[in-house]
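G., the chain you wanted modeled:
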Amino acid sequence: MQRPWLRLALGAAWLAALPAIASAQFPPPPPPPGARPPAPPPTVQDRWPEPAAPQRPAQAQQQPAQDGSPAQKPAAPRPPAQPANVVACNGVFAKDSTHLKLAIKYDSRNVAYTEVDGPEGTRLNASVLYPNDAKRRLEVLWNNDASRSDTSVIVITGQSQWVAPKGLKLGIPLAALEKANGRPFKLTGFGSDGTASVTDWQGGALTLLPGGCKMGVRLMPDRKTPEQARGAVMGDRELISNDPNLRAARPVIGEIVIGY
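Predicted structure as tokens:
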């Protein structure tokens, strides 16, 4: 006795096999010459492709400061430092310096080898820094003029704003000069040219400077000093820096000479 459910299962299997049997009996026609072969059926992976990688967020803009003030811009580069107008007894102003060393440091266009005023109306050869700028002018004289080498003296004069060792410069009053030396010093009386020269630092701080150089100073009375006060300190005499008559003349530094 056949079971009805068995007949139904066999019939369903037969119907499911019909498409495969038909495909085997009647294969699809070949593609025409030169045609691309048909693409393979999509796979499960093709139907559900991998999700695209998340895009990276754009670089965050510069955030303002927490206190609400705008963000600071980067500081602009500083210009190269200019050589300081200070004379020291080393470097290009050492005993073994040369005109060439000055030209390298201060630019050859700012250094000229020319004549300058010497003692008693004479003229001497010297290397002059910034010859056309009275406030930056500096005179350097050599022991060997032929090679322009071996420093003899360095002169700060006129309107020059160069600073000598110990911070001395033109225009400093007598009291400040005595303070820098640490004790009173000796000097000549004021001559016909209106200047007086230091003759002895009396063992003070300005006697011998680091680097082996020595410093000479010429003073001149203040322009507003009365003629009577000037007359009290003029002539061929020796003075001491704490002399009341000299203080009354109110002299200031008029020239500085640094020598070896």
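Residues 87 and 164 are 5 Å apart (CA to CA).

Shout if anything looks off.
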